[in-house]
Task: structure prediction
Amino acid sequence: MQRALRTGLLSAACVALCACTNGDGQSAQPIDGTAGAPTAGTTAQPNALAGTGAGVMGGNAGVAGEPLAGSGGQPAAGAGGAGGVSGAGAGGAPFDAGTMTADAAATPDATIDETILLPIVDPAEEGPYGVDRIDLVEGLSTHSLFVPNELALNGKHPVVIWTNGNGGTIDTLSYASFLEHVASHGFFVVADKASNGTREAEVDSQAAAIDWVLAQNALSGGQYFGRFDLDRIAVMGHSLGSLASFATASNEHVRTSIHFSGGITDNPVGFDPAWLQQMKRPAAFLCGGDDTTAGPSCEKDFAMAPVPVFYGVLAGASHIGPFISPRAGEYGRAGVAWLRWQLAGDPMFRSWFVGSDCALCTSPWTAMQRDLD
Result:
């Protein structure tokens, strides 16, 4: 099905994002540089990573990297690692993890529980729902919506709350492409338009998004009256947005959370590690194998998380690498699969995360899991 995407904002030039601050605990500034041409295979976003002086977020490329999360805030510098993220100077090709399909034994008519979404086979492909993007949201001016433009079979949609990396907007990198992709699979996405780089503000922003969903669902005669499945809300974010999501994961309305490149344990930039211990529902931690920013903390988060958790490491991926690819590449594939399982009860995707032979336990992924059933 061809999707219709209504855009109300012009794409912003990419800025470097990071979940880190400088050594004194203040918010890190975006890395400046001459914007390069869009990287092959990406959406039509300027690729600030390909230009002179534009480094990866604290990561594998760039002359002056951001402080490393979990390493005491020392600057990272040096040549780009595997994963093909464009760095300072010559631009590299985006990471290509190849293809992956769902368990061959699964069928697209597998039974989904009471929140019924149209069945799919491959979460990397465009979903069965058309998508409208709405940038002028009454009562929530700080957010944009990515809305499935057809009802789920029972008239309600699971909801996903999204927060960007530090200093980023939804038109930075391939965030918009990724969020449209998520919505095309039937999830109603409420996305923070722009991160202001402060921690508590992002937590408050996620709480405001959840409150808006609850209020709109209860507003008799409103556009979204009764449209949301309030038992199936997820929160997720990248980098800084991931860290804020650790706090929101304990919200009583949140059923699951996805943390892209955002380790909180031993993070030197002022996030409260107690947020990890306050989590109550299953979570997925997805991090890059070449991520020097969040990578050192991701495995520690897995070891200390008090909830059922999947921890996947994508080979060759830097802190932002997957978010350069359309639909966020392997992160988009894994994220939709997790949401289909956790929010839609789709049994087809359990095998992607559970067992020693899980779909995300093989190349280009390595994985650990605990207490998932």
Remarks:
- The two ends are 33 Å apart (CA to CA).
- The chain has a mean pLDDT of 75.
